[in-house]
Design brief:
Length: 118
């Protein structure tokens, strides 16, 4: 079953999370292109979908990037400083972005399956 995402607020949940994490879903081309540009930070995270790579050109802060596969399992985690371009992850279908260090604080790690409640 293919899930149809919509630009909207949502909640991120996973087994080790103490409480749900607020997520902004960016599902349209315009919303994905804008992403976190022009912001000084983000409370929670942003889900870019569909997406398999990101850039941080003109961003004001470093971000944690989690690549998610079709089943919303974390395939890779990276911290990306401003002014960089990541390589596409072939199996990634979605990208979760947050302020650098946030994903470590939440306990998110490779192999964990997350859920998004819209």
């Amino acid at each position: 079953m293919v899930r149809r995402w919509h630009n909207a607020p949502a909640l991120l949940r996973f087994p080790d999370a103490v409480s749900p994490i607020p997520v902004e879903i960016a599902a349209t081309y315009a919303r994905r292109r804008r992403g976190l540009l022009g912001r000084d930070g983000i409370e929670g995270a942003m889900l870019l979908t569909p997406c398999n790579s990101v850039h941080t050109f003109r961003m004001r802060f470093p971000v944690d990037v989690a690549y998610l596969d079709r089943e919303l399992r974390v395939a890779a985690l990276h911290t990306v400083p401003p002014g960089r371009l990541t390589r596409p992850r072939l199996r990634a279908r979605h990208v979760l972005e947050s302020e650098a260090g946030a994903m470590t604080e939440w306990g998110l790690r490779v192999g964990v399956r997350v859920s998004i409640e819209q």
